[in-house]
Amino acid sequence: MREYLLLLPIIFIIHDMEEIVGFGWFFRNNQWLFDRYPKVMNMYRDLKEMPWKLGVYEEFIPFFGVSLLAYYFPNNILFSIWYGFFLALTSHFVVHIGFSLKIKKYIPSVITSIVGLPVSSIILYKCVLLMTFDPTTVLFTIIGILLMICNFALLIWGMTFLSRKLEFRNDTRFYIAEK
What distance in Å separates the CA atoms of residue 159 and residue 155, rounded to the nearest whole number? Predict the structure, then answer.
């Protein structure tokens, strides 16, 4: 299983590079999304690009950290948390693909999601064959998923807070309100 552990942060960072490069332009040029899908899009309304980039870095830390820990200190608990993180990332790909299909438009992240989904699914499948599933494994896999969900919620809050409270020179909003 060790041969798969470091693929998690690599797949994540490749995917998030597409987001970093494209989301600013995408939001500025597709403002209609904020009116049409307010429940989904309002979390991005006040975001500025610098806090977004810091958020991607913050999100990378747990992926890289648990991968390194599981690689250097192999045990079922760390493998299970890692597996939960990988399941969360793979589910994230499905969300991007689904939203892109819903709006019938390319969104930055859909290309790496389309490529990453089958690759991640194969890795997850191969790891399932190597893992022993007992109550502890299931529990820590669920904990891994929940940690990533909580991290994402905290991340959105932190990025929004930074966007509203701090000034970033030459920083632009993702969403520019029409006047």
Answer: 6
CA 55, CA 62: separation in Å to the nearest integer? Answer: 12
**Matching residue, tokens 């990988």:** 86
Classify residue 107 by its DSSP letter. Answer: -
Q: Tell me: the pLDDT tens digits for 116-163?
A: 999 999 999 999 999 988 999 999 999 999 999 999 999 988 888 887
Among 61, 60, 46, residue whose Cα is nearest residue 171: 46
Q: What is the length of the chain?
A: 179
Contact between 62 and 85 (Cβ < 8 Å): yes
Taking every pair of C-alpha atoms in the chain, what is the biggest distance, in angstroms? 58
Prediction pTM value? 0.87
Kindly report the number of other CB atoms within 10 A of residue 20's CB atom: 17
Is residue 179 classed as helix, strand or coil in its secondary structure? coil
